[in-house]
Amino acid sequence: MKILPSAAILTVFLACATTGASAQTVALRGGGGEGHGLMIRSGGACYLLTPRHVVGEAPAASARSAAPVATGRAFVERPFWEGMDLAIGVLRGALEARCELGLQALAGETRLEAGGAGELVSLRPSGEVERRPMRVSDSGYLTLEAEFTRPEDEVFEGISGSFLFIGARPAGMAIEALGQRSARFIRVEEIHAAAARWIGRRGAVFTQSVAPEEAAGLEARAPELEARPERAAPALSAAFAVANALKDGPQAYVFAPQGPNRMAFRLEGEGARSLTRAAIMTDPEGGHALPRAILVEVSSREDGGGAPRFFASGNMGPDGVFDQKRSPVLARWVFVTISSAWTEGPVRIDRIRFE
């Protein structure tokens, strides 16, 4: 059976060790209960791998390491097929500095035969790393099974998400208890294949994004170009007008998706302005769908006519941040097209900023 104690808040504790693959082990408290996971790095971004049932339906996670404390926030997705007990989260904030294990460390086949020895790595409540020796009892194509070898070791609360290590290499992630002394694991090869495909399709967005806490401080880093909206999909109501997104405040722009929403913004001032950055932010816990595919184009013509020029494109990350910066281009108009969303329902944009 799965270890599923109830809990409402996801908190991450990083192992005290700072070197080696096992140092990337984290302890979790998610929407589905207590568990563990593994931090991996790819393309400049840090990700969390953990069983789907541990995080439950929680959309986000607050994150905290062991002393010295580093805090952050994890945004969790369940993009894998039904039946694969795997979720992936994007880790943001100071915790990213502790994330060192490359995704490629999970690649390649691990030779596992019945009787092979390994160690289950987990964290105590104090943050100390605990290693429990195990013996592989069955090795299949997608999963493996292992049992504890010391008489005093038994399946414990939060075993889900703990990784079995063969030497220094992760071999599998615990997903299910099999009695009091053994557990079933997803083989690391399957985890790598699924995570690499997902990161390969979406990871570039994360590497160009900024942390949510940094996004709130964009005003301190560069002057904002004033803009006024000239065209956008109708808002759900006057309270959700597109103009809300161009200023700080509690009100957002919310619209019902009825085909691509191509918004047109005219930059204020005399003549064309130098544009270097376009940032679009949405609160992932705001109660509406996050934009997904985003295209930003510009025009330096007075009327905004003619063929627009490409500025940036990509997917908004699950943390609700799309932030693209490039060499300066001259623009009188900026066109932002939202062509899809991450979920069904009205789409929300809290802030649009041009620099």
Written account of the structure:
Strand 5 and strand 6 form a beta hairpin. The strands form five sheets. The protein has a seven-stranded mixed β-barrel. A six-stranded antiparallel beta barrel has the order 8-9-10-13-12-11. It contains three helices and 23 strands. Residues 3-19 and 203-220 have low confidence and may be disordered. It is mainly beta. The N and C termini lie far apart (53 Å).
Helical proportion? Answer: under 10%
Radius of gyration: 23 Å
Please work out how many helical segments DSSP would assign. 3
Count of extended strands: 23
Q: How much strand?
A: 35-45%
Order of helices and strands: EEEEHEEEEEEEEEHHEEEEEEEEEE
The biggest sheet amounts to: 7 strands, mixed, barrel
For the largest sheet, list the strands in their spatial order. Answer: 1-2-3-4-7-6-5
What class, by secondary structure content?
mainly beta
Low-confidence stretches: 3-19, 203-220
Mean pLDDT across every amino acid position: 84
Distance between the termini: 53 Å
